[in-house]
Write a structure and sequence with these properties.
Layout: E1 6-8, E2 14-16, E3 20-21, H1 27-40, E4 44-46, H2 54-64, E5 72-77, H3 84-98, E6 103-108, H4 118-130, E7 134-140, H5 144-154, E8 160-164, H6 172-180, E9 184-188, H7 200-209, H8 213-223, E10 227-228, H9 235-242, H10 251-258
Parallel strand pairs: 3-4, 4-5, 5-6, 6-7, 7-8, 8-9, 9-10
Antiparallel strand pairs: 1-2
Helix pairs in contact: 1-2, 1-9, 3-4, 4-5, 7-8
Length: 274
């Protein structure tokens, strides 16, 4: 069974540095994927209400036979559920769909600044944490200004900021901001839809190490201090993404990979997305 390191959170808890995400996993396949991934050794499942597969997440967790405390479960509050009362209702609905009495990490999925509700939503998450229904709380796709407003108006700093991050969008400034606030950066779309697989620097590193381009990129995420949640619906892909602990990148590799940053965002702009 692979040894997955944990990253300490600013609330005294921790989360696995490597997990798997359920974005775009069909509902009919989700229970199987979750059960297989947990059987391989994954211990972090990243879900969201908008993915439409929370029921499968819960079913796969139950099928795995693992004790509840062995698996770190994340889900997220969607944009249409922003606001204090709406967020509390959304959490109740997610909990019921997954079939748990507690979530390890609950995130605000997008800041949606035009709505002007993310601080009220954050206050709801604080209540859920204080009630013990959520262990840790965080955000997703928040820029530094959004984070600063949360902290200034509530005094509570998110434990995690999950952001789009891959070789062509390395988010150095935002990662630095997260680090200064003690926030763990978690990478979504970490392989960048494969757009960097053919980059000479990645091909060269992969050939030298006898690894796939995907493994090189996922190792890079871990080496720059991020938690990372790749997605695969294939057993072979799940196993490949997990096999990262028996090789290392050099300082020269990391410097070469840094040159791939092109500011190329594939998802929405968090300042505009509603």
């Amino acid at each position: 069974m692979p040894q997955i390191p944990s990253l300490p959170l600013n609330d005294g808890h921790s989360l696995p540095a490597l997990g798997f995400g359920l974005w775009q996993v069909p509902g009919a396949d989700t229970a199987r994927v979750v059960e297989q991934a947990l059987g391989l050794g994954y211990r972090l499942i990243d879900g969201a209400a908008i993915y439409g597969n929370e029921e499968g997440l819960g079913e796969g967790l139950r099928r795995s036979g693992l004790p509840r405390e062995a698996v770190f479960v994340t889900t997220k509050c969607w944009n249409t559920d922003q606001g204090f009362d709406a967020a509390l209702r959304a959490f109740d609905a997610s909990l019921a769909r997954i079939g748990l009495d507690r979530i390890d990490l609950y995130l605000i999925h997008w800041p949606c600044p035009q709505q002007g509700l993310f601080v009220d939503t954050w206050r709801a998450l604080i209540r859920l944490r204080d009630e013990g229904r959520v262990t840790s709380i965080g955000v997703s796709n928040f820029h530094a200004a959004h984070l600063q407003r949360l902290v200034a108006e509530t005094g509570v700093t998110p434990a995690v900021n999950q952001i789009e991050l891959h070789p062509r969008l390395q988010q150095v400034t935002l990662r630095d901001s997260n680090r200064r606030l003690g926030i763990v950066t978690q990478s979504w779309s970490p392989l960048g839809r494969g757009r960097s697989f053919d980059a000479p620097v990645i091909r060269d590193i992969a050939a030298r190490l006898g690894r796939s381009p995907a493994q090189v990129i996922l190792r890079w995420h871990l080496d720059i201090g991020c938690s990372v949640i790749p997605r695969s619906t294939r057993l072979a892909g799940l196993a490949e993404n997990l096999a990262l602990s028996d090789f290392a990148l050099t300082a020269g590799d990391l410097a070469a990979l840094a040159t791939l940053d092109a500011g190329e965002r594939m998802g929405p702009d968090p300042d505009l997305f509603a």
